Each structure stands twice: as C-alpha cells, then as structure tokens.
Amino acid sequence: MIAWLAALRGRALAEPGRCEPREAATLGRADLLSVVLAGLHFVLLGLALTALSGATGLGFFSWILTFLGFGLWFGQVSNANAHELIHRADRRLHRLGQWVFTSLLFGHHCSAHRLVHHRFVATPDDPSTAEKGESFYAFAARSWPGAFVAGYEMEAALRRGKPLWRARLENPYLVYLAGAAGFVVLVGAVFGLDGLVAYLLLAGYAQLQLLLSDYVQHYGLLR
Fold it and tell me: DSSP letters along 54-107, please?
C-alpha cells in the first residue's frame, strides 16, 4: 500500500516528457492527494482508537498487530504527507499539515523543521542532526526537546518587536500545545483510559519513526 501511494504521488508530481510550473494541473492533483491523505489520517486515527480501546474485543496478539499496522501508517504515510503539506505556500494546506502533526502530539515539528533544521542541518545547532557515535535512543532523547525549544525560539525571534500579547497569540506554539491538549482530552472523553493509552502509544510510535528518519539521513554529517 505504501509503495503504491508513493508511485501514485510520483505520477501526480510529474508526467513523463512534461515539465510544468508549480501551478500546473499535475501538481494540483498532488495537492489534492495530500488533502485526501490528511483526511484519511483522521478517519484512520478514529478507527484505530475504536479498535485499540477495547470496543472491538481484540485479543492480545490481534491488538499488537492492529497497533503496529496503524502505527506504521501514521509514521510512514501521515508523517510524510504532513511534511509535504507544511512546506506548501498555501496557508490552508500548511495548516492542514500542522493539524496532522498536532494530532500526533508533534506539532512543534512544523516550526523546528522549517525554521531550524532547514537552516542548520549538519551543524551542532540542529537538534535533528545525529552526532557521530551517538545512539538512536540518545539522539531521540536529545532531539525531541532540543527541537521543541529551538523551534519556539525561532518563532519568538520572528515576532520580536511586536507587543508581547500579540507575539504570544501569533506564536504557533499556542496552537501546537492547545491542540495537543484538546486531542488528549477528546480521546480520553470518547475512548476512555484504554483509548487514551493507545493514543499516546500511537503518537509516540509515529514520532519515533520520524526521529529515526532524521537519525539515519543526517547521522554524523557536518558542514
């Protein structure tokens, strides 16, 4: 399924023998596919929590397999698709990607990736670049909070000079944190404690997959 989606997205982005500008129909179809996948993410998240909260009576091994299946989708498809969306100039598409990441309790990645990682990749100032000899688990423990703080600092710097109240209201970290809290409360209210635990585990699993991608891609690089 993942390979099929990658091939489909590739066809949407470019057709053989043609070179069109960003506004062309082929890229419009790519944006449409991203929107569909983002919508599907929220549908699948609801289905996953319904199944994993005990409502479907899954046994232990069935629960594990269901968790891994949904978790793989969120980590490999939802993360990758949200990454594409947050780079879109269209604010509606950007916000859609932001909400996908926020639903995985990883909203700060939108700021940390665009404002910190893109600028400082392969330098000591990038929390998402693994140091040579650093294990993945040491990297993950350093990268997550490091990216959170660095992204916030960059967003705050962009609003320096504005009235404090306005700078705080405009900082997207308000959306990331309030949105994450809202998802946690909503999941707990709808799916109970078992559903909330499953949600936190799914979000953590999806985050680990994105962190692992950063670890592998940039391990030991310096410039």
Answer: IIT---HHHHHHHHHHHHHHIIIIIHHHHHHHHT-SSHHHHHHHHHHHHHTT-T
Domain-located, residue 38: yes
Number of independent structural domains in the chain? 1
Judge whether 206 and 75 are in contact, CB under 8 Å.
yes
User: What's the pTM value of the predicted model, to 2 decimals?
Assistant: 0.88
The number of angstroms, rounded, from the C-alpha of 215 to the middle of its chain's C-alpha atoms is 15
* Residue numbers of the domain that contains 113: 2-218
Q: With the C-alpha atoms ordered 159, 165, 166, 172, is the resulting torsion angle positive or negative?
A: positive
Under 8 Å between Cβ of 146 and 127: yes
pLDDT in tens, 100-122: 999 999 999 999 999 999 999 99
